[in-house]
Amino acid sequence: MTIREICEKYGLTADTLRYYERIGVIPTVNRTKGGIRNYTEEDVKWVENAVCMRSAGVPMEKLIEYVKLCQEGDSTFQARRDLLAEVREEVQEQLDRYKTTMERLNYKISRYDEAIKTGVLSWDSEGCK
Amino acid sequence: MTIREICEKYGLTADTLRYYERIGVIPTVNRTKGGIRNYTEEDVKWVENAVCMRSAGVPMEKLIEYVKLCQEGDSTFQARRDLLAEVREEVQEQLDRYKTTMERLNYKISRYDEAIKTGVLSWDSEGCK
DNA sequence: ATAATGCCTGGAGTTTACTCCAAGTCAAGA
DNA sequence: TCTTGACTTGGAGTAAACTCCAGGCATTAT
């Protein structure tokens, strides 16, 4: 597959895809004789992985580390698992923060809905901003 | 309360707190005769709001806009509600992405746990990276 | 009285993750 | 053959959100 197809599939720009490859967030993609990138199914999976992890704010650093471990072969299963567990921990913490913020937003919006009806903005106990 | 106390309470640096005030993510804090910031309960609530929203990736832009609307008085209830609803939409989308990533991580980690036991890394159907 | 400590302002510098660009190559169509 | 258009590389530029610093005032401790 061409870089264009991958871009469209994942909503990335060609620059971003090349950048990901350059810094090692995905492994090197093979080229045609002409020097043009030709993405295999394997490459696509790597792109998908990068997109998914990045969408949850996993830093490039971690992705690069993971790719490196994968390239070192089967002896790195434990290291990869540890890395993923560490990432999971951070994603979970972030997820919890998002939930807390959602609750706050829901509460505030409900207070504003009330205020729009009654003309008065009021908060339970402590108040809010 | 002093800037130091607020820093400790929310795990921010004094530079960050001053920066927030400077760009309008929180309203201007009153000073002592000596010119030193003296945070009221009200100010603290604004800081808490900023910290909570920022922790879910809400851009400064939105927070500044919200603070401005609040300062314009009761005529902006609807505008504030709309702004919060827009923010909620984005936070929800991000939350969903985090959930998807968590699932992927859980799956991968379970596969690695298996691999560590058996010595062989295998994926259901499509495979993964 | 003086030294230390803490806070002040305005502005410059840093980090992360892209994003853009110039100059060049290559394959396909007129 | 010549042009067009997509792709290449290496490197410079950008945006968002801090983070650091110099030079200066003010309160507190000795």
Give structural notes.
Two copies of one chain form a homodimer. By secondary structure, chain A is mainly α. The first copy, chain A, folds into two domains: 59 residues, Orthogonal Bundle (Multidrug-efflux Transporter Regulator, Chain: A, Domain 2), CATH 1.10.1660.10; 57 residues. Helices cover 67% and strands 0% of the residues of chain A. In chain A, helix 4 packs antiparallel against helix 5. The longest helix of chain A is centred in the C-terminal third of the chain and has 42 residues. Chains A and B meet through helix 3 and helix 5 of A and helix 3 and helix 5 of B. The structure holds a DNA duplex (30 and 30 nucleotides).
Q: Which secondary structure elements does this structure contain, and how are they paired or packed?
A:
Two copies of one chain form a homodimer.
Chain A: H1 3-10, H2 14-23, H3 41-55, H4 60-71, H5 77-118
Helix pairs in contact in A: 4-5
Chain A binds a DNA duplex (30 and 30 nucleotides) through residues 2-4, 13-16, 18-19, 22-23, 31-37, 54, 59-61.
- Overall CATH class of the largest domain in chain A: Mainly Alpha
The shape of chain A is elongated
CATH architecture of the largest domain in chain A: Orthogonal Bundle
The quaternary organization reads as: homodimer
Low-confidence stretches of chain A: none
Tell me the structural class of chain A.
mainly alpha
Question: What portion of residues of chain A belong to β-strands?
Answer: under 5%
